[in-house]
Amino acid sequence: MVEWIRTSGLTDYDDAVAFMEARAASIALGEADEAIWLVEHPPLYTAGTSAKPADLTDPDRFPVYDTKRGGQYTYHGPGQRVAYVMLNVGERGRDVRCFVRDLEAWVIAALSEFNVTGHIRDGRVGVWVERPDRPRAADGSVAEDKIAAIGIRLRKWVSFHGISINVEPDLSHFDGIVPCGIKDHGVTSLVDLGLPVTIEDVDVALERHFDRVMTPRCTV
Fold first, then answer.
1. Predicted structure pTM score
2. Could you give the angle at the alpha carbon of 108 between the alpha carbons of 99 and 66, nearest 5°?
């Protein structure tokens, strides 16, 4: 049983971490169901375990939170759907890489609801979309922008933190960091792609595809 929780308004980041840690501990003890928590945050930056200080290019722009999730710097703010995943990876195959691949597949499946094709690229975390309307990269390849970020942490084989999908955030807010340490590609959103999609639409797509993609045991 996975409980779906939706919180309206903007959720304080410290409060979110406290809730996730408490829920993950209860799941590990068998005292609570797994949970997907859907939130939005006020504008802020978070630093993962691989964050490099030089990638925080405007440290005074928004609050910066150090976090022990995987990854580097990322932005959260209004118009971005954050889905915190508190799931028992111990009962889903105990394969962290496979679990992350399933998270990526879940995001890609949700994006397909809006006729958006998401891609996974070696050496670049997150989910990417091709931008044939933009100038090609120096190597001649089609330009790509990031539309979703993924970063998790495990404690006693229970995950927390999770995914973020850019629906309609202020994309200029990403200018204060090098998102996920990647300098040669941009950031986009569903609305930036010309799609009249709402946060609520994304919630429906995420829930619709969860059971099909995030199987009880990780799929190879």
1. 0.94
2. 60
- Do 24 and 73 contact (CB within 8 A), yes or no? no
User: β-pairing, 64-66 with 44-47?
Assistant: parallel
Catalytic residue among 111, 127, 180, 197: 180
Distance CA 218, CA 97 (A): 9
The phi and psi torsions of 76 (rounded to 5 degrees) equal -130, 145
Amino acid at 58: D
Q: Is 98 a catalytic residue?
A: no
Q: Which of 155, 150, 184 is nearest to 165 (CA)?
A: 150
CB 114 within 8 A of CB 190: yes
Closest CA to 202 of 99, 127, 101: 127
Q: Which two tokens stand for residue 105?
A: 């597949």
Categorise residue 50: left if φ over 0, alpha if ψ from -120 to 50, beta otherwise: alpha
The owner of tokens 């990269």 is 137
CA proximity to 77, closest of 39, 44, 38: 44
Half-sphere exposure of 95 (CA within 13 A, CB side): 13
Q: Who wins on pLDDT, 133 or 220?
A: 133
End-to-end, the C-alpha distance of the chain in Å comes to 22
Q: Using 50, 70 and 90 to split pLDDT, how confident is the model at 144?
A: very high
